[in-house]
Structures are given as structure tokens and as C-alpha cells.
């Protein structure tokens, strides 16, 4: 018994508690799918802090991507190729409705300036009511379509009178620039690109639209269940990176524009729009996502509302 006690004491001295916790959680590799997007994972990747935090727990990071959007990243998560990624609350709803085994572990309400409906500077469209009989570029079932439909609903405008043109974000930009559509419902970095390079102005921002959209961080359910200490380390690091970005918006904007391969001149706008607080998911956040999910169901984008609460793990700093 004395030898066993000494053995335990030696292990405690050689391997601090966080390391032992990581070992118990499986240690090894954390596979993170990163997006060309302004979020805390992108910041942590660029600054090396996620690797440092996980290395302290005896784990290493394997980066996958960059993914062009949340949907393909969530497909990779569903296939078991990655453990963690980022996206929007709209992407979460579609993933949970499709029974992808994922869990939301962080929530970042999007700023008003990071979403909106754009028109050309010389467009005769002056208000949302002027969209009647006009065409608007959106991504089918995604943030763009949500923003447009939410704006129309909030302002009592019959959606059947507005033509939705379903395009990818990159194709939407080209169609808008060339005048093939009258308006474009989109988000950053496309908002900043449209304003800087496509001669756009904001018809309605996220506040005018009444958007409840957010950036979310997500993990596979297996990872959450089996490697909780490593998930907590990722969460803590993302919170720290978020605090740094809010204190250093211009530098954060530079990191994000570089990651997204867009002009460095957009960094101040991108930093200002996207360096907003991240937190663990609250009951109010779940209710907000549920409201968007209700719209998804009523719009027949998903057949039934998924159980959002069951798709959340509540972490605290």
C-alpha cells in the first residue's frame, strides 16, 4: 500500500492535473476545421494560441481547411474527419435538423454592421418596400435567405412579391456587381467587399432587419463526451482570443482579411464589425436560435424543428 501511495504521488508530481485530465480524455489530436471567416478560431489559428493551449494538455492540433462555408465543414464533422468548427446559428439549425451529431459550445451575436441587404449607390430602391417586384440574391436556406425573409416579414411585405435568386455567396457578388440582381442579402466579409468594391450601400443592416443570427462554435458529440478537458481548453482560448480581438480591432481585422484573402484595406471595417463578444451558450441564446428554427420550419427549409437545447453544451469560463 505504501508503494502504491508513493506511485500515485510520483505520478501527480510528474504529470500535473491538467495533463492527467487530458490523458484521461484521450489526449492525442484535436482536429479543427477552420473557415475563411472572421471568428475566434481563425484568430487562434493565426496567433498560435490554440496549439499552445492544447500542447499544455499533451494534445496537438490538426488543421483542416480552409472551408468556404459552414456547410462543408459540418459535412466533414458528420463524416468524422474533424472535431471542431465554426459557423452561423442558421447553419447549426440545418445541421441539427439533418441529425448531424454536433453540439454548440459558444455563441457570438453578430453585430448589426456584419449583416444586411445591399443595393447599388444609384439604385432607386430607398426602402425595403421598394423591393417589391425586384430580384434579390440569396444563398438558399442560409443566412442570406433568412435575412431577406426576416426583413420582409418584419416590415409586413409579402414575400411572394420579391424574387429570390439563389446563388452562392461568390456568385451573388458577381451578379450584384454586374447588375443582374437588384439587391443582395449577405454578411461579412461580403458586406465590406460590396461597400468598398461594388459600389454598394446598405439598404437595411442587421438591426433594421431584426436579425437574431450569431456565429457559433461547434464540436462533434463524440468529442464533447470523450474529451471534455480539451473542449474546455479550446473554449477558454477562444474567449481569450475574443477579448484580444475586441481590444485590438484593427489587428484582428488584419488577421481576418489575410485569412480570407481579401484586400487589407478592408481590415478596419472587418475588425469593427466582427470583434464582438463571445460567450458560453445561455438559455436566451437557445431561445433565439429556436426562433430562427421556427422560421426554417415555416419556410419549409427543414421538415421539423430540431431540439436546439439538446444540441448545446453549456460551458463556463
TrEMBL record:
Protein name: Aliphatic sulfonate ABC transporter substrate-binding protein
Species whose genome carries this gene: Roseomonas marmotae
Keywords, sorted A to Z: Signal, Transport
Membrane-spanning ranges: none
The family this protein is said to belong to: Belongs to the bacterial solute-binding protein SsuA/TauA family.
InterPro entries the UniProt entry points to: ABC_SsuA_sub-bd, Solute-binding_3/MltF_N, SsuA/THI5
Cellular localization per UniProt: Periplasm
Signal peptide range in chain numbering: 1-24
Superkingdom of origin: Bacteria
Keyword field contains Signal: yes
Pfam families per record: NMT1 (PF09084)
Residues annotated as domain Solute-binding protein family 3/N-terminal: 29-248
